[in-house]
Amino acid sequence: MSTFRRCAPALAPLVLLIACTGSVDPPVYGDDPPLPEPRRGLLPSMKIAEPALWGDRRPLVPQGYRITAIATDLQIPRQTLVLPNGDILVAEGRGGGAPALTPKDVIAGIIKARGTSPVKGGNRLTLLRDADGDGVYESRTVFAQGLNAPYGLALIGNQLYVANQDALVRFDYQPGQFTAAGPPVKVADLPSVINHHWTKALTASADGRFLYVGIGSNSNVGERGMVAEVDRAMIWEIDPTTGAHRPYATGLRNPTALAIQPGTGRLWAAVNERDEIGPNLVPDYVTSVREHGFYGWPFSYWGQNVDPRVRPQDPARVATAIRPDYALGAHVATLGIAFSTPAMGPPFADGLFVGEHGSWNRDPPSGYRVIFIPFSDGRPAGDPVDVVTGFYGEDGKTRGRPVGVTVDPRGALLVADDLSNTLWRVTPANRPAGEVGSATTAPTAPGAAPSGASAPGAASQTGADAAGSQPDTRSATGGPDGSGGRGTEGGTGTPGTPGSTTRPGAAAGATGASAPR
Fold first, then answer.
1. Looking at residues 139-156, what average pLDDT do you find?
2. Model's pTM, two decimal places?
3. Counting CB atoms within 10 angstroms of each CB, which of 186, 216, 268, 468 has the fewest?
């Protein structure tokens, strides 16, 4: 008998409670967010907006920028990687499948499923190529298939690394390849039993010596027992030559995106925090990651705020818990981060792009947008700014959900949308759609050397070079017209119409993101 059938008698009254939610304060953000008191109930607020097609609509971008769909009809795009010759790899797949423990879990599963694409995950990597540099990615091939929910991507030299939900694997890579030359080689097994949080984020160190893999917890706050959390809620450091690994940092409930900060070589992570203690707790966050650091989960949150639901407590561990750098608001579900470059234009020259997939357990919903956190002297320095919005419309419908964000160092922001199965490209509007920085022309035949391209070193999700002589590192982690040339410029139109957005430099709402726009 199915879990749903067994639990059905209990579901009806519980579902009714979902609708009985009052107004809530907007979520908090920043480096010192005021945290409300925990609020517990039989069920959290649950709301997923009704999915809808984009039709003639487009996501909204700031004045002076344009957005273009460069690939549609993908199969659950998650993360992207810009290769040294300008080609783009897209990881497509859907993982997970942890069994429900309670009727509440069954309800949550139903609610979450309503906000996802019905398309089957591709379990593949798709390669996109713009051979003549005009901004239209006219070539599209399956680079590799038969993978297991691929998510994170990284390139070190001529080795392409892919983080499946159960293993880190490697392909040989030569610039200009349309398809992989052979099957992948396993580098290391990754924790995959239960897989409550299945995504495996990936990035390479600035010098290419190590890979970092984000591994999420198997529960909300340890309710499956701590044996199920062995090697979970942490970031692994892996030697790519041997597969040897060690915990780099722990207590990170679900580190869904990793990136190396240009200039410093410092590792940053986006972390999705725990649920069910209120609409504004606990804030998801981005943070620099300290080696051997402990970030609280499951015993505490946002530093040393004790979570009383966890038994037994561990005061000694709590006393060592590190407070993160920047809160994004509760339940926004950040799944992508990428450091910017000056090629993205003055409003976004220095800082971090963040893709917020959007909440399922908050009413009104939060997230459903891409924001930019300005930096100064290597640290967050200001309120978040809306960059790509309109995924959640004022009509209460959801047309897209951003996942991975990647900066092409030549001057473009890539946004994977796993609801409409689209890859979006945001560029400054004051240059032709295909003109980006010092673009190199991609080869037009498999194995051909890219004209003017530098030798590949290591590559990072940010798409930006690390300081000094370190090798270049690249990592990653039913829609509109797929021609790749159809775009929308930012403007000041009515919300829900292409062209409307928050002005660059303006805060993304008075209090962060009371409802996605």
1. 98
2. 0.83
3. 468
